[in-house]
Design a protein that fits this description.
Elements (H helix, E strand, L loop, with lengths): L2 E5 L4 H13 L4 E4 L5 H10 L7 E4 L4 E4 L1 H11 L11 H28 L9 H21 L13 H16 L7 H12 L1 H10 L9
Parallel strand pairs: 1-2
Antiparallel strand pairs: 1-3, 3-4
Length: 215
């Protein structure tokens, strides 16, 4: 098999690429990376010294591809499958990329700040940074609430790269900073994402590892 994904089943950014692979029905091998295990960590760093997951290795092209959005666009170009996750219309493609960056930078990143703060040693927590992250999430939710009026997916009626980013971002963010009753459009969008087969499969595969999530 040409493609190997280096990932961890709990990692939200890894979910984004898994969802894209399942949407496209692209065959791939998988290698779970445990950064807490020295042997696993060393093997991964030999492939990608930055040490951030996920990373896709395409043996047929001797290519190592990091960064979720780049991985998904690489797959669309070199391994096109059942789904076209980047619209062919230039304006829609631009909107898809914009929403993709929005969910990565303004939902995933602050969500991860809150989660990783819970993993810090006692006395080393960053309360100020966590509150800033929560404020960022609340601001992002307000934009999502407006954006999702009258549409099914992040960019209209077609599931795209942006929805691959939105699913893990909103799933985890809602756990650490719930939407609340005043954001029904955001909540309904998340529910649609959760019933998407590619998303449901990704979450089901992660469930055996949920005990490792911080409370």
């Amino acid at each position: 098999m040409s493609l190997t994904l280096y990932y961890h089943p709990l990692a939200s950014f890894c979910w984004k690429v898994l969802i894209a692979l399942y949407e496209a029905e692209t065959p791939f091998a998988r290698e779970i990376v445990d950064l807490g295990d020295e042997a696993s960590r060393s093997r991964f760093l030999a492939i990608w010294p930055i040490g951030k997951m996920p990373v896709l290795v395409d043996a047929a092209r001797s290519a190592t591809i990091p960064e979720t959005s780049i991985i998904i666009e690489y797959l669309a170009r070199h391994q096109p499958g059942a789904a076209t996750l980047l619209p062919t219309d230039p304006e829609l493609a631009l909107q898809s990329r914009l929403r993709d960056r929005f969910y990565d930078l303004y939902v995933q990143v602050p969500m991860q700040k809150i989660v990783t703060d819970r993993l810090r040693p006692a006395g080393a927590n960053d309360g100020f940074g966590v509150e800033a992250a929560r404020a960022q999430l609340r601001a992002s939710y307000e934009l999502i609430e407006t954006q999702m009026v009258g549409q099914t997916w992040a960019v209209g009626e077609t599931f795209t790269l942006a929805d691959c980013a939105a699913a893990p971002a909103l799933y985890y963010a809602n756990r650490v900073e719930p939407f609340g009753a005043m954001r029904p459009n955001a909540a309904a969008y998340l529910e649609r994402l959760l019933t998407r087969p590619s998303v449901a499969r990704t979450i089901a595969e992660a469930k055996p590892y949920f005990a490792n999530l911080p409370a």
